[in-house]
Design a protein that fits this description.
This protein has 925 residues and is of the alpha/beta class. Helix content is 39%, strand content 14%. The chain has 32 helices and 28 strands. The radius of gyration is 33 Å and the shape is globular.
């Protein structure tokens, strides 16, 4: 067969263009073509200086007879293939596992697999130019490639699609043949931090036998690596560092990187009570810290380790939000100045789906943070599960390939290699503003916690680990052999460090209470922590008509020089009419007035979630599109006198990751109204872990306030089981003491005041709002301008349409159901029924409700009415918290699904619940 038959279908012009592209930038062409042209360049004499593209095309067309390729030229091709083999697959043959042999990968990098043999080892090849060397022997080429790609650092990067990035990586790896080159002082600094890491764990192991601490032993080299990272990052202009990690090694990081007082750590081990009464705290290996650190060169850097729950990877989303909030607030023009670091476990990064969500955020406008350095403390086991049972992928870090991020696999026993890899990762992040991963391959010295027996499940592995030296002693032997230190050096470091720990332990035991330092306390200066009673105090949220008019002018007028579709023009004109003519403002208009008034007062607003720019139910239209170009126009950005910034972003299709991000954003910037809106309230259950572990209890566990707002569309309108209920029962079950607000508003004005209250208080609480769907355009659900310019949020709304003395039945309800009940009342002409709206469910305004009940002297029939089934909604919560009267229930029966999929059946059930309000005989439990 003709060896060039594959070219028959090609075209000369194609080869010419491809060759020209190769000459201009060799890395811009596909690797196989690059190798092809490189080979022909080496053998140009064979073609009598003819353009290779033309020559190949002529051969393919039969215009000229193909000259045979010399054996030497064929070997050059094979060497090029060998080079590509090392670059693409060298990571599979590294010496990165400190305690056992690597799994075998095939084919190997043996030269025979590339058409070469031992007889070629002394042959000089021009292909060496490709790796930056002068022509040299094959044995020298192999030695060079093996040093770069197959020692203690394995690098995955050839899947990256940007040739410029690939070239940068290859040039970087070529420096010192990817080997560390530290001075004696730098080596001593690495050893000192390694000693701190090892000595700290040894001390705790002897003083607190059997207590959980999730030790770092087997991965101690992360301590000198993080220390070096902070030093080098500060030199590159980084001013803030935001870190998230799970349990393993957290105490070590807190003590030896963040400078947390070991007295406080010992107090936590001793189980002492806290110095503050209003929060319950968390276990010691979940706590966070903020500190200011001065580097060796005198640079000041603010470092933050976020608190986290036992859901291992949730904190990754939170730190991205914290980072973005800091970037938006302090460095909007240079995101590189705030550096997020995410530390993972190998089982968690492979098994937790939120990692995929976080990684997909990395380059999105609303969520990007200029690149994250991901570090995996790879123990090669998850609790008791072997890595072969923990993932299908080759590496735990294979998720990195989603965003074409490079991965460095490093032997955790080689301290210098780990620090070297960290420096590479920092340079990459600062150069490209993209994610980079370090897989720190080590081991876990003990079981999952220090009371666990790992030999139950990994007996062979733990025999090897029991004989293995710690990284400090391994490195000390290396430095001793290099004459960098003498034989007494390490012992001196250890004695001094442990002596300080002994002093702090003694001092700690003289204290009665444990002190918990709030996370990011500088961001929260001026904010106070309050009780639920203080949460019920009235806050003036009124706003001037002049200011509202300015907001209306901004959101009710399209740019005259741009063309919009007719429907857009109509809805904006409708807004103008309702404000300037009819004085009947709908929900969307009330929402815009809330945002605009806060912007004028200097608060920022951030809204995020699926389809929030337009709104799932097409009510918001905060962003409108120009018809011909789809240019985005955010109308409120034209607001006169705005001191704050308005940010609104359609999120990708994620609830868990995005809500975690926005929680983190609100945690770092209490003066931004931070809102996450669910596409349907039902979908918030996709973020349930964030709600359970952060939003509902972050203040109680970690002393952290947070003002995140959740807008959850809720209402029974015959749209089926997954588009009806935001599951308010779940949020109400989480409510206790002073942890959050839960509201279900019925008017645009009350929603306006609710959002403004969120910013106007001297404290911050999460706010859960069950927002309407059908009411967004219901002509009954409107408010006048006067309701915005006066008053404050109404926790309850009494019935002003009845003569209170005539009322026999007093109904309490929330949300949309109010409109359904009152419509039925009008149809029946019932003047003996009053309907009271509870707009805020938590904290429940009990005193207000007492006062309302007292105004109905002849009422003897009290009803709790809800459109949700009996086992859902607020019924069970009200039973526990509202015992002012004996009432009956008007609702659907208990069901397993929130609603029927049949519109007819759902409508019938809904009507039955309404009739039960007015007919005692229909009451049924």
């Amino acid at each position: 067969m003709d060896r060039f038959s594959f070219l028959n279908a090609a075209h000369t012009e194609f080869f010419a263009q491809l060759y020209d592209q190769y000459l201009e930038n060799p890395d811009s062409v596909e690797p196989s073509w690059r190798s092809f042209f490189q080979g022909f360049d080496f053998g140009m004499a064979t073609y009598n200086d003819e353009n290779p593209a033309t020559y190949i095309a002529n051969v393919a067309a039969g215009a000229i007879e193909c000259a045979p390729i010399s054996e030497k030229l064929q070997k050059e091709f094979n060497v090029l293939k060998l080079i590509d083999g090392y670059r693409s697959r060298g990571h599979l043959f590294t010496k990165t596992n400190p305690v056992r042999d690597r799994r075998t990968s095939t084919p190997t990098l043996d030269i025979e697999n590339f058409g070469l043999s031992s007889s070629d080892l002394n042959t000089v090849f021009d292909a060496a130019k490709i790796i930056g060397k002068a022509p040299c022997s094959l044995s020298d080429i192999i030695k060079h490639l093996d040093t770069i790609y197959c020692q203690h650092i394995g690098v995955e990067y050839m899947y990256i699609r940007n040739p410029g990035v690939i070239k940068w990586i290859q040039d970087k790896l070529g420096v010192n043949d990817n080997l560390p080159n530290f001075s004696s002082e730098e080596k001593k600094s690495i050893l000192n931090k390694l000693n701190e890491a090892v000595s700290f764990e040894n001390f705790l192991h002897t003083k607190y036998v059997g207590q959980k601490r999730f030790s770092l032993e087997g991965g101690e080299t992360i301590i000198p690596a993080l220390d070096a990272l902070i030093e080098k990052a500060a030199e590159k202009g980084v001013e803030q560092f935001v870190m998230g990690m799970a349990h393993r090694g957290r105490l070590n990081v807190l003590a030896n990187i963040f400078g947390k007082s070991t007295q406080d750590i010992f107090g936590e081990f001793d189980g002492k009570d806290y110095d503050q009464e209003y929060f319950d705290g968390d276990v010691k290996y979940h706590l966070g810290l903020t500190a200011d650190k001065v580097t060796a060169s005198g640079k000041k850097i603010n470092i933050n380790l976020a608190p986290n729950p036992s859901h291992l990877e949730t904190v990754g989303a939170v730190i991205e939000g914290i980072t973005r909030a800091k970037q938006d607030k302090y460095f909007p023009d240079d995101f590189s100045k705030v550096l997020p670091i995410a530390v993972h476990g190998d089982a968690a990064i492979a098994g937790q789906g939120i990692l995929y969500e976080i990684i997909q955020m990395a380059q999105l406008d609303g969520y990007k943070t200029g690149g994250t350095i991901h570090i995996v403390i790879n123990n090669q086991v998850g609790f008791t599960t072997n890595y072969t049972d923990a993932r299908s992928s080759k590496y735990c870090t294979d998720v990195a390939k989603v965003t074409l991020s490079p991965v460095l696999h490093v032997n955790a026993d080689d301290a210098e290699a780990v620090v070297h890899a960290m420096a590479f990762a920092l340079d990459y992040r600062m150069e490209f503003g993209r994610d980079v991963f370090i897989d720190l391959l080590g081991y876990r010295k003990y079981g999952h916690n220090e009371g666990d027996e790992p030999r139950f499940t990994q007996p062979v592995l733990y025999k090897l680990i029991a004989k293995h030296k710690n990284p400090r002693d391994i490195y000390a032997e290396k430095l001793l052999s290099e004459s960098v230190i003498d034989a007494t050096y390490v012992n001196g470091l250890e004695v001094e460090y442990k002596s300080n720990l002994e002093i702090n332990l003694e001092a700690s035991r003289k204290k009665d209470l444990t002190i918990i330092t709030p996370f990011m306390k500088n961001e929260w200066k001026g904010f106070e922590q309050v009780s639920d009673a203080q949460m019920l105090q009235k806050v003036d949220t009124s706003y001037s008509k002049e200011g509202l008019t300015q907001v209306a002018n901004a959101v009710c007028n399209l740019p005259s020089d741009k063309k919009f579709i007719k429907k857009t023009e109509k809805l904006i004109n409708d807004r103008k009419t309702m404000f300037f003519e009819t004085n009947q403002l709908d929900w969307g208009m009330g929402e815009h007035l809330a945002y605009g008034s806060l912007l004028q007062e200097g608060y920022d607003v951030r809204i995020s979630g699926q389809d929030v720019e337009r709104g799932t139910f097409s009510h918001r239209h905060a962003v409108v599109k120009v018809e011909d170009s789809e240019e985005e126009v955010t109308l409120i950005n034209s607001l006169e006198g705005a001191k704050g910034k308005f940010h609104i972003f359609n999120s990708f299709l994620s609830e868990y990751g995005v809500l975690g991000f926005d929680y983190g954003y609100a945690l770092a910037n209490p003066n931004t109204l931070t809102i996450w809106e669910a596409q349907f309230g039902d979908f918030s259950n996709g973020a349930q872990i964030m709600i359970d572990q952060y939003i509902s209890c972050g203040e109680d566990k970690w002393n952290n306030q947070n003002g995140i707002v959740l807008l959850l569309p809720h209402g029974y309108e015959g749209q089926g089981a997954e588009h009806s209920s935001a599951r308010m029962e779940r949020y109400l079950q989480l409510c206790a003491r002073h942890n959050m607000y839960v509201a279900d508003c019925t008017t645009p004005a009350n929603f306006f005041h609710l959002l403004r209250r969120q910013m106007k208080t001297t404290f911050r609480k999460p706010l859960i709002v069950f927002t309407p769907k059908s009411l967004l355009r219901d002509p009954r659900c409107v408010s006048s301008i006067e309701e915005f310019t006066s008053g404050s949020f109404q926790e309850t709304i009494d019935d002003t349409t009845v003569n209170k003395a005539d009322v026999k039945t007093l109904v309490f309800c929330t949300g949309k159901f109010y409109y359904d009940i009152t419509a039925e009342r009008e149809n029946n002409g019932r003047k003996d029924v009053a309907v009271v709206r509870i707009e805020q469910l938590f904290p429940l305004p009990v005193e207000q409700l007492k006062a309302i009940i007292a105004q109905y002297p002849n009422a003897d029939d009290y009803v709790w009415a809800q459109e949700e089934p009996k086992n859902m909604g607020a019924y069970s919560y009200m039973l526990m918290n509202f015992d002012l009267v004996k009432w009956r229930l008007a609702s659907l029966k208990a069901y397993s699904a929130p609603a029927s999929g049949s519109y007819t059946r759902a409508k019938r059930r809904h009507a039955d619940a309404i009739r039960m309000v007015f007919d005692k005989d229909l009451f049924r439990c």
